[in-house]
Amino acid sequence: MKLWGKFVYGFSWLLITVLARLMFRIRFEGRRNVPPRGPLIIASNHVSNLDPPLIGIAVPRKVRHMAKRELFKVALLFAFMKSIGTIMVDRGHGKQALLDAVAALKSGDCVVIFPEGTRSPDGRLHKGHSGMIIMAVRAGSPVVPTVIFGSEKAMGKGSKRIRSVPVTVRFGEPYTVVYSGEGESVPRDVLERECFAVMSRIEALLPAEMRPTAEEKLAWYGRSE
């Protein structure tokens, strides 16, 4: 990150932290579970547009977000995200984003990813996708399962109004993907197994009402435990 980017990141981090503490009485739990250096994937549920900046200030080190291509079409957002090293995701053509994320991880960065791929429509955890597993294998990166809750009440999907409600960001223990083979061609069964493992760890950190049912998990992953 260049000098200007460091300034923008630091200023925005401070501003968001102050606003989050005032508006959401934000709480951070389990921050000691976040390794202070080295490649790291923060894999979180996604319930609000507020999640990226709030998780960004919760992680006790600099992070790089992955953001959908549409946001880069807004001039001010483009300038801001480019300056702080945001990784662009072109939905349906995610190979380049995957390569960019792996390169960032290999350089020792911390990358925030929402494995569901989009915001939850109802606040509950939905099916995860295996891109994070490919990233972890290729970069040799641990994954920290993470959850945010309260932000769905502060600004849910489709809402344009921000409410002042309590928000919590909770970090679980780092997880190491169980696979030692070739990173360029991870078998499908490994992807499915490890994706389920990470999503189960995310689920365990959530309040009960935000967790998927056993029937849903069986339909998504072919297993519920």
Give a description of the structure:
The structure is a single chain. The protein has 225 residues and is of the alpha/beta class. The chain has one domain (3-221): Glycerol-3-phosphate (1)-acyltransferase. Helix content is 40%, strand content 14%. A seven-stranded mixed β-sheet has the order 1-7-6-2-5-3-4, sandwiched between helices. Helix 1 (3-24) crosses helix 2 (51-58) and helix 4 packs parallel to helix 5. The chain is globular and about 45 Å long. It starts with a helix and ends with a helix.
Helix and strand arrangement:
Blueprint: H1 3-24, E1 27-29, E2 40-44, H2 51-58, E3 64-68, H3 75-83, E4 87-89, H4 95-106, E5 110-113, H5 131-139, E6 143-149, H6 151-154, E7 168-171, H7 188-205, H8 214-221
Parallel strand pairs: 1-7, 2-5, 2-6, 3-4, 3-5
Antiparallel strand pairs: 6-7
Helix pairs in contact: 1-2, 4-5
Give a summary of the structure in a few sentences.
The chain has 225 residues and is an alpha/beta fold. It is built from 8 helices and 7 strands, in the order αββαβαβαβαβαβαα.
End-to-end span in angstroms? 41 Å
* Low-pLDDT residue spans: none
What structural category arises from helix and sheet content? alpha/beta
Order of SSEs: HEEHEHEHEHEHEHH
The amount of beta strand, in percent, is 5-15%
Helical content, roughly?
Answer: 40-55%
Keywords:
225 residues, alpha/beta, Glycerol-3-phosphate (1)-acyltransferase, 7 strands
